[in-house]
């Protein structure tokens, strides 16, 4: 390793790390702090990284900040679960509520590329009806977006990430062919398939953001199975190796190890730039527009931490909804033992999926849907699951761990309903920068519990049909956070509009998973990136019409007056 | 370097590939004689030659032996690698290795043999090869069908390759044809089952090209045609098949020069394919240093020469048609 | 829960470290694993007393077989706390990692003294197991716990750190037949009952001598 990216910023002096070459560099445009850039973007993950790329390609000047390091996966990532915890956001946070969330490794990333550096690459489209779940399905909230428009943006993202997916996707309206073919199934995936076939429901290869054939300098997947510990092959199409290199090539600047602590707003109620901590001191970057894209916890935290006399409750918070309606996705599992060797550590963890219960509404006693996927936990994760979820320790744990290579599991990604009481607030304690830390409050509602019960029952049956024995259920797990700055068409009941622009501050945007009004039963990153692509297009269009500086509220008023 | 000492299977696979190259070189060398009509009896191990006069049927037969040998070499290397990947779970998985190895040896024998008579041993080997190709195809179809998901893209992509055993079937057929051409009496029309030999073979080879192209198409589709060169084996061979088809239907006395040139192009493509696949292997993680994975997961090195084998056979058939306009 | 004797290993003769110089390991992995194998035996974060308690807790949560060098679980935990590594979240009432450990160990000793009149490390395996089971189910009331719930401490701090430390060690990887580090080389054979030559063979999957031979030569 040429240097330590966790201690010293790498993107500086006109160059940024070349993620495709050990020790390599690519040129990077740099902006002075006094230079007012068009966009200062906080966060370089699924939302921020995508937006930075698109805006730079449209000719805007962009500086994107990330609190995390700028890794070169080929040289910086070890094949080691412990070592790779360096990818996670492990700054202090407090969890409470009836069902406190597990964060850290299970949730946020802290690196250029954000959580996509260690995500599991599952790349699903939403079911079209979910964009209007209140009107069409009777729960949650409607999105101010049309699924047909989203269908085009999904396509753009799938192409940009060379998603490897099945030749024909069994659910939903037709979609174009995935750019790359699906990966081979591992035994764990075939267990899922067996169960589905026995129960008469559809299944398919999971569309994954990891290469099944070479792409430029990126190698195809070698099925090493360390995906959630970071991909040292560069097969994984994270923002770090897709959008960010494009952003740099188009003239964006990336600032790594740069923690934004506050968005500055002037007396006129307009954002003027961001305060960020880098190299041991605070700096200020001027910007015409500020985009917050820090993930569903850090985004509201930053908005709430940026209070001033004019906005005593935090920025963009006239609705009082910043931080509220936090939605995790339920992530319960059923595990069993197979007579055959499964060795699920080989290959990406979720090679097969069924979205049956996302698209089938009959036979449900709950709102929403869930998908479920095959699993491939590595030893530390698996041992901790046995201990924490099953309560095993001592001789039982040791002897059960011996069955590691025979374990097969099915795990849901389930829809949880938005509730105002599930939220991110600020605790009194502060972090290493003196910023108040977030408190994350979470409790399941009855609908959440019914969905989970349905899923566990169904998956137990599926595992039984696949000839698993010693089946047990893992009841307490959640994944993927969204909500906390929802988009909508009414300023009183949402934080941003369909373009991700805040209702209150015309040049403050929020572009990440926080804007989701509902989460559906599908992993969110493809949708986050599609929204970012749409936002970029909208910004370009608004700028083209000279409307970029016109507040969202004025246009809302004009609309409602008609 | 521990894997060198311990990973015997990979070593075998490496040997198989070396064998493929050596086999091809030998075949070409042995085949040089009929190609330019001169020989000097240097190779003592080769069968004695009684007829030194250039008889077109024998020349064609030896060329066909050579083509069958190239195909067999490709099968030998390919099935060694693929069945090693399948850990030889079933003892029957050794069959194609044994059969293709003996077909290769037989073809070498035939290529070097200038006598105008069929050899019972060659006939037996070629027929065995053809039959085992058929049985192998059956096995592969059965294996794909019994996987969960059945006859799906997933299992066609990653399960036992349905088209692969066809290559040894084709090798056997070509060899069998070669023996029929070789034994045809002077002054009579060379025939296979009473059909004109040249035209029949052109048709068979054309079909073989189509099938092989289909197989390449399936696997290159799996690779999402990420490199434009991957389009070659799905475009050039079908054209070649069409040209051969036209030759098969054409009346006597035609030159088929374009077809012949096209066969040369296909042969070159087949051998160049090994190079392209080697490049493909190098583009995988760890490149050639990680050969124990990448030879198996990367593009198959031994596969493309099967096009060369068929193209060489096509040339032989065309030249036979030229020498025997009625064949 | 009592100590295991020495049952037939599931992957006889397999040592994942055999692969260390081969294509399954890259330089950065060799470096972090070497560092882990060289973890100092003496505590740098815990006091000697605390360290002894951690070791006796670890011996109950991940009891190790005799006949091989033990995984130094307590030392690995000490190293992590010394470094100041964090999970990135904690339940309401639980302090950050270091304070949580200190407080939890104190509470555990307080519980042991209240129940058996001696510190945790001195009360014998069966009683230790009994106390740990009570902690796991939340059946503890010593004021030494403060605002931290014993259950949370067990599940989210103590047992978690013990289990993570043990399964971060190559000895544990070998024991469960995991393929171990895998970059640049990953895997080829993915289906049911398929094993790459660089993976461990399971006892019973072939004759015993052959299985051992395979496992000694994974590379
Ligand atoms: C283990 C795991 C597996 C997952 N698997 C999948 C999957 O298979 N499919 C899927 O669709 N989704 C998956 N996800 C979820 C997915 O990764 C996230 O939903 C997505 O990345 C969120 O995008 P984002 O832009 O909101 O935030 P992120 O991608 O997390 O990006 C936020 C970035 O902002 C930075 N940041 C935050 N605050 C600040 C600040 N104040 N100053 C500077 N920088 C800041 C952070 O460092 C981070 O890099 C997974 C997540 C995890 C944890
Ligand atoms: S399995 Fe594929 S995507 Fe996952 S870490 Fe390995 S190479 Fe990367």
Protein traits:
heterotrimer, B: 327 residues, mainly alpha, C: mainly alpha, disordered N terminus, binds flavin-adenine dinucleotide, binds iron/sulfur cluster, transmembrane (chain B), membrane (chain B)
Explain what you see.
- The complex is a heterotrimer of chains A (562), B (327) and C (219).
- Helix content of chain A is 24%, strand content 19%.
- Chain A is an alpha/beta fold and 562 residues long.
- In chain A, helix 1 (46-57) runs parallel beside helix 6, helix 4 (147-160) crosses helix 12 (525-544) and helix 5 (187-199) packs across helix 11.
- The longest helix of chain A is centred in the C-terminal third of the chain and has 20 residues, at 446-465.
- The mean pLDDT of chain A is 96.
- Chain B has one domain (3-35, 54-323).
- Chain B is an all-alpha fold and 327 residues long.
- Chain B is globular, with a radius of gyration of 19 Å.
- Chain B has a two-stranded antiparallel sheet.
- In chain C, helix 3 crosses helix 6 (150-166) and helix 4 (97-116) packs across helix 6.
- Chain C is built from eight helices and one strand, in the order αααβααααα.
- Chain C has helices at residues 27-37, 48-61, 73-83, 97-116, 125-137, 150-166, 170-176, 208-216, and one strand spanning 90-91.
- The model of chain C is unreliable at 1-5 (pLDDT under 50).
- Chains in contact: A-B, A-C, B-C.
- At the A-C interface, strand 5, helix 9 and helix 10 of A face helix 1, strand 1, helix 5, helix 6 and helix 7 of C.
- Bound molecules: flavin-adenine dinucleotide and iron/sulfur cluster.
- Iron/sulfur cluster (SF4) binds next to loops of chain A.
């Amino acid at each position: 390793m040429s240097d330590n990216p966790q201690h010293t910023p790498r993107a500086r002096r006109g160059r940024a790390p070349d993620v495709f070459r050990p020790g390599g560099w690519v040129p990077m445009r740099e902006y002075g702090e006094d230079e007012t850039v068009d966009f200062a973007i906080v966060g370089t993950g699924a939302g921020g990284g995508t937006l930075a790329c698109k805006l730079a390609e449209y000719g805007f000047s962009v500086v994107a900040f990330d609190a995390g390091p700028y890794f070169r996966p080929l040289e910086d990532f070890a094949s080691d679960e412990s070592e790779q915890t360096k990818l996670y956001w492990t700054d202090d946070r407090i969890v409470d509520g009836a069902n406190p969330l597990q964060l850290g490794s299970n949730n946020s990333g802290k690196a250029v590329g954000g959580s996509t550096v260690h995500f599991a690459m599952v790349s699903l489209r939403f079911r079209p009806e979910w964009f209007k779940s209140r009107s069409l399905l009777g729960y949650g909230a409607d999105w101010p977006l049309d699924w047909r428009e989203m269908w085009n943006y999904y396509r753009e993202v799938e192409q940009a990430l060379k998603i490897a997916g099945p030749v024909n996707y069994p659910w939903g309206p037709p979609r174009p062919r995935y750019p790359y073919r699906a990966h081979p199934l591992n035994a764990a995936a075939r267990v899922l398939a067996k169960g589905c076939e026995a129960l008469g429901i559809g299944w398919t290869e999971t569309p994954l953001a990891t290469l099944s054939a070479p792409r430029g300098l990126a190698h195809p997947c070698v099925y090493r199975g360390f995906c959630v510990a970071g991909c040292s092959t560069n097969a994984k199409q994270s923002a770090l190796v897709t959008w960010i290199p494009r952003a740099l090539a188009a003239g964006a600047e990336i600032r790594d190890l740069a923690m934004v602590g506050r968005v500055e707003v002037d007396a006129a109620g307009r954002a003027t730039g961001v305060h960020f901590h880098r190299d041991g001191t605070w700096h200020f970057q001027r910007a015409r527009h500020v985009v917050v894209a820090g993930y569903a916890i850090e985004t509201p935290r930053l908005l709430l931490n940026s209070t001033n006399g004019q906005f005593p409750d935090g920025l963009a918070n006239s609705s009082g909804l910043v931080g509220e309606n936090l939605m995790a996705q339920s992530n319960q599992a059923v595990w069993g033992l197979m007579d055959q060797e499964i060795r699920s550590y080989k290959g990406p963890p979720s090679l097969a999926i069924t979205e049956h219960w996302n698209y089938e509404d009959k036979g449900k006693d709950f709102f929403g849907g869930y998908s479920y996927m095959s699993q491939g936990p590595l030893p530390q994760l698996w041992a901790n699951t046995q201990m924490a979820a099953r309560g095993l320790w001592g001789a039982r744990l040791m002897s059960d761990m011996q069955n590691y290579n025979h374990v097969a599991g099915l795990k849901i990604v389930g829809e949880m309903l938005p509730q105002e009481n599930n939220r991110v607030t600020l605790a009194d304690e502060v972090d290493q920068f003196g910023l108040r830390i977030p408190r994350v409050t979470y409790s399941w509602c009855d609908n959440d519990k019914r969905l989970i019960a349905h899923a566990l029952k169904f998956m137990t049956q599926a595992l039984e049909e696949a000839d698993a024995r010693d089946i047990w259920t893992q009841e307490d797990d959640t994944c993927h956070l969204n909500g906390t700055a929802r988009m909508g068409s009414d300023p009183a009941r949402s934080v941003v509009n369909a373009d991700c622009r805040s209702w209150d501050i015309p040049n403050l945007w929020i572009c990440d998973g926080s804007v989701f009004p509902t989460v559906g039963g599908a992993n969110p990153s493809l949708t986050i990136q599609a929204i970012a692509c749409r936002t970029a297009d909208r910004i370009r269009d608004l700028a083209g019409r000279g409307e970029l500086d016109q507040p969202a509220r004025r246009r809302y008023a004009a609309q409602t007056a008609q | 370097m521990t894997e060198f000492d311990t990973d015997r299977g990979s070593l075998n696979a490496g040997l198989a590939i070396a064998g493929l190259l050596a086999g091809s070189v030998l075949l070409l060398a042995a085949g040089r004689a009929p190609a330019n009509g001169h020989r000097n009896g240097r190779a003592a191990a080769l069968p004695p030659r009684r007829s030194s006069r250039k008889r077109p049927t024998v020349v064609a037969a030896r060329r066909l032996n050579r083509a069958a040998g190239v195909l067999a070499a490709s099968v030998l290397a390919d099935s060694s690698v693929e069945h090693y990947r399948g850990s030889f779970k079933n003892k029957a998985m050794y069959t194609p290795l044994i059969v293709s190895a003996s077909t290769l040896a037989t073809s070498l024998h035939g290529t070097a043999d200038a006598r105008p008579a069929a050899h019972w041993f060659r006939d037996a080997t070629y027929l065995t090869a053809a039959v085992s190709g058929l049985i192998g195809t059956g096995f592969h179809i059965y294996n794909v069908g019994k996987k969960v998901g059945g006859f799906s893209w997933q299992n066609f992509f990653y399960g036992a390759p349905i088209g692969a055993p066809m290559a040894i079937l084709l090798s056997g057929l070509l060899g069998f044809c070669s023996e029929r051409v070789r034994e045809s009496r002077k002054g009579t029309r060379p025939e296979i089952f009473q059909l004109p030999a040249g035209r029949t073979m052109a048709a068979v080879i054309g079909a073989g090209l189509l099938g092989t192209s289909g197989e390449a198409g399936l696997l290159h589709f799996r690779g999402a045609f990420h490199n434009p060169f991957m389009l070659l084996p799905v475009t050039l061979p079908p054209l070649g098949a069409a040209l051969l088809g036209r030759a098969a239907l054409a009346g006597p006395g035609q030159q088929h020069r374009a077809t012949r040139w096209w066969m040369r192009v296909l042969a070159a493509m087949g051998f160049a394919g090994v190079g392209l696949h080697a490049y493909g292997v190098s583009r995988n993680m760890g490149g050639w240093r990680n050969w124990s994975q990448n030879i198996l997961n990367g593009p198959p090195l031994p596969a493309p020469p099967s096009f060369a084998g068929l193209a060489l056979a096509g040339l032989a058939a065309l030249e036979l048609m030229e020498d025997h306009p009625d064949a | 829960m009592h100590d295991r004797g020495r049952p037939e290993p599931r992957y006889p003769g397999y040592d994942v470290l055999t692969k260390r110089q081969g294509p399954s390991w890259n330089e950065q992995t060799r470096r972090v694993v070497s560092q882990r194998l060289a973890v100092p035996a003496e505590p740098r974060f815990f006091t000697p007393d605390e360290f002894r308690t951690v070791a006796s807790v670890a011996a109950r949560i991940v009891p190790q077989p005799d006949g091989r060098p033990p995984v130094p679980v307590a030392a690995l935990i000490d190293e992590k706390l010394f470094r100041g590594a964090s999970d990135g979240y904690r339940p309401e009432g639980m302090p950050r990692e270091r304070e949580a450990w200190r407080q939890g160990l104190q509470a555990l000793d307080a519980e042991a003294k209240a129940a058996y009149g001696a510190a945790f490390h001195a009360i014998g395996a069966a009683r230790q197991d009994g106390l740990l089971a009570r902690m796991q189910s939340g059946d503890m009331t010593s004021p030494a716990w403060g605002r931290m719930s014993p259950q949370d401490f067990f599940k989210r701090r103590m047992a978690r750190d013990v289990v993570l430390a043990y399964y971060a060690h190559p000895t544990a990887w070998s024991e469960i037949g995991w393929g171990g580090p895998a970059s640049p080389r990953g895997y080829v054979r993915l289906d049911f009952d398929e094993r790459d030559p660089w993976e461990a063979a399971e006892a019973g999957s072939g004759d015993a001598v052959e299985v051992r031979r395979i496992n000694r030569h994974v590379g």
